[in-house]
Amino acid sequence: MKISLTGIKPTGNIHIGNYFGAIKPALALTEKFFGVYFVADLHALNSNPSPKELQQLIYEVAASWIAFGLDTEKAIFFRQSDIREIPELTTILSAVTPKGLMNRAHAYKAVLDKNAENGRDPDDGVNMGLYTYPILMAADILLYNSDVVPVGSDQKQHVEIARDIADNLNRIYGKTFKLPEGLIAEDVQSIPGTDGRKMSKSYNNTLPIFTSEKDLRKQVMRIVTDSTPPEEPKNPDGDNLFQIFKFFGSPERVEEVRQLYIHGGLAYGKLKEELYEKMLIAFGPARQRYFELMDNKSEIDVILATGAERARELGRPVLAKVRKSVGLDL
Question: Which of 66, 161, 250, 261 could crosslink 234 through cysteines, CB 3.0-4.6 Å?
Answer without folding.
Answer: 261
